[in-house]
Design a protein that fits this description.
With 49 residues, the protein is mostly helical. The chain is built from 2 helices and no strands. It has helices at residues 2-22, 28-48.
Length: 49
């Protein structure tokens, strides 16, 4: 249970980030590199846990 609780805030942050990008179509291209960086951090945290 503790593992799930630790990842949940990060999951919410990433989800909110993707939602934000989807609502800014004109800025979507600029956000691609940031999405990749966030995705890498997300995977790293999961493996480190």
């Amino acid at each position: 249970m503790g593992h799930k609780c630790t990842l949940f805030p990060l999951y919410r942050r990433v989800s909110a980030f993707f939602d934000d990008i989807l609502h800014k179509d004109s800025e979507a291209v600029d956000g691609v590199s940031q999405i990749s960086a966030d995705h890498s951090d997300f995977i790293h945290v999961i493996r480190a846990s």
